[in-house]
Structures are given as structure tokens and as C-alpha cells.
Design a protein that fits this description.
Elements (H helix, E strand, L loop, with lengths): L7 E8 L2 H11 L3 E8 L19 E8 L2 E8 L9 E7 L2 H11 L4 E9 L2 E8 L5 E6 L9 E7 L7 H11 L4 E7 L11 E8 L2 E7 L12 E7 L2 H12 L4 E2 L4 E3 L5 E6 L2 H4 L5 H7 L10
């Protein structure tokens, strides 16, 4: 993680093909570039776990940007796959731009809501690309996020009816945060009146989307898309770890956790790349739950 203005960064999990996927995204968008690449250790002596031996020396993560919005691609195994519970809305200037991106990103993928005209937009479509990453592409208008790319959380199954609660929780945890707008279901077949059809909220000054749907969805939040928090010091790591694991959240390893809604977060220092260059750093991280900076020598 780098100490830049993007406090919260989506991490996308790939099954051994992160480099291929990032190359695809960089070619699909006119304003996209690779920032940096990290690699797995080359041996167990350097901290590689037994289940990671097949990844020795290979790409571990790739930091990249699309239209000024930063992502991290994680190159790992088949344990997790991105799904539409966390999607990314692309706000375009014209229907032409929507169509161009749609026809590129849909190659080998799947349409979730077909490209077309909807009551809320003259041109919109929702798709999963061939790597499972979910994109909503829409013409910029009133009520559409101002930023070019906006992460969105879809609350399904046991989380239906909790989206507003979740927004209040997140905006209480992160600074420079607020709920901006809420549009509720009304006389919508299959949905409960008052539940959230679409909402905008800000975390650390950046917009996010919240939606919920009682439909027969098979997906829930998982590690396929996680959100990393770039922390300035141990005190900030401790703060976010305590807040996000509270009330039923779950600690994992290597700075990962799940909050009470099942959303996966990574809480780490902003200079994690420098930290990982220290002796035995990879081995130390594999033994940690919450990251303790002082343990890296």
C-alpha cells in the first residue's frame, strides 16, 4: 500500500492469472496503468507456506489504476472468486462510452442486467467479466456517483434489510464520512417497501454505493473482493481492527478480517511494501492475525 489519497482500496482475488487479468483491464480502459508488482518468496526458508509452494517466485500482488482509481490484484489459488456482492460502477460521459466499455468487458463474461435503457438511466448494463469481477456501466447523470469508478455493496440473503444499518456503522467508523442519499423500494415485486434500492455514502471522502435485494441470489460477501485500509501507524491499525471485528466480526490472518456483515477487510500499514522487504517478513505475516509492526525486524 502507498501513502496516497485513496484510503480504502479494493483487492481482487485471482486464481493464478492476476497478471493476465490486469493486462486485460489496462487494455480495456484508455486511462489505466500498472503501478507496481510484488512476488512470493522463492522457498520455505524465506517464509513460503506448504500450500503456497506452487507459487514460489511468482507474482503475488499487482497495484494498478483505472481512471485514477486504485486496485490491487491478488494472485493466489481457487479458494475465492469475486462475485456481484461487491461491484464497481463506471460513470461514463456518453452512451457511446458505455457501449464501448460494455462490449470490451463482456467478452467471455456474463450479463446480469442487459445493456439498455432503464427508468433510472438512458444507458446502463451490469455484467460479470471473464474473471468474475462485476461492473455496472452507466451514463453520468443526477443521482449517479460523481467519480469515474465507485465500489458498491449488494446486501443479499440474511443481510437484506441491513444496508442502512451498515452504512450508519461504516460512516461511524471512518472519518470524513456521511450518508448522501437513499432511494427505497416502493411497490417493487419481490422487495419489501422501505428497503434500500440504491444509496450513496462516503467513506474517507470517497463515494460508495449500497443496494439490497431479496431476490434468489446465490452470492454473499466473500474474500473474492476485499477492501484494504492504508493505516498511518499501529494505533490506526488497532483502531480499525477493533471497530471492524466488533459485534460478530471475525479475525483472520495476515491482517485480514470480516466485519459483522461478512465484508472482508485488510488492515495494514501504508508502507507495507517496505515492511515486506525486512528479513523474515513474509514468515512473520503468515503467523499474524492483526498486523503488529514492531514484530518486523
Amino acid at each position: 500500500m502507498k501513502n496516497n489519497m485513496q484510503k480504502i482500496t479494493p483487492n481482487l482475488w485471482f486464481n493464478g492469472n492476476a497478471k493476465e487479468a490486469v493486462d486485460f483491464y489496462v487494455s480495456a480502459f484508455t486511462d489505466a496503468n500498472i503501478i507496481s508488482t510484488s512476488h512470493y518468496p522463492k522457498s520455505k526458508e524465506e517464509g513460503l507456506a506448504d500450500f503456497q509452494l506452487n507459487m514460489a517466485g511468482k507474482v503475488l500482488t499487482i497495484d494498478f489504476e483505472i481512471m485514477g482509481f486504485r486496485f490491487v490484484a491478488i494472485n493466489a489459488g481457487s479458494e475465492f472468486t469475486p462475485n456481484p456482492s461487491i461491484s464497481f460502477t463506471i460513470s461514463c460521459k456518453s452512451a457511446y462510452e458505455v457501449d464501448a466499455l460494455w462490449h470490451t468487458l463482456i467478452m467471455g463474461g456474463q450479463a446480469l442486467m442487459e445493456l439498455g435503457e432503464y427508468p433510472f438511466s438512458k444507458r446502463y448494463g451490469w455484467l460479470n467479466d471473464k474473471y468474475g469481477v462485476s461492473w455496472q456501466i452507466i451514463v453520468r447523470a443526477d443521482g449517479v456517483p460523481a467519480g469515474p469508478i465507485t465500489p458498491g455493496l449488494m446486501f443479499t440473503k440474511e443481510n437484506v434489510g441491513r444496508a442502512e444499518e451498515a452504512m450508519k456503522f461504516y460512516t461511524s467508523v471512518f472519518p470524513d464520512s456521511k450518508i448522501e442519499s437513499i432511494f427505497r423500494y416502493e411497490n417493487q415485486p419481490g422487495e419489501k417497501d422501505g428497503n434500500i434500492a440504491h444509496a450513496l455514502f462516503k467513506l474517507c471522502g470517497r463515494e460508495f454505493i449500497a443496494q439490497e435485494s431479496a431476490g434468489p441470489h446465490k452470492f454473499v460477501f466473500n474474500e473474492g473482493v476485499s477492501l484494504s485500509i492504508s493505516c498511518k501507524d499501529q494505533e490506526e491499525i488497532d483502531y480499525y481492527w477493533e471497530k471492524l471485528t466488533a459485534e460478530g466480526g471475525q479475525e483472520s490472518v495476515c491482517g485480514w478480517l470480516k466485519d459483522k456483515y461478512g465484508v472482508s477487510w485488510q488492515v495494514a500499514p501504508y508502507n507495507i511494501e517496505d515492511l515486506m522487504k525486512k528479513p523474515d517478513a513474509f514468515k512473520i505475516m503468515m503467523q499474524q492475525k492483526k498486523i503488529i509492526i514492531a514484530e518486523y525486524k
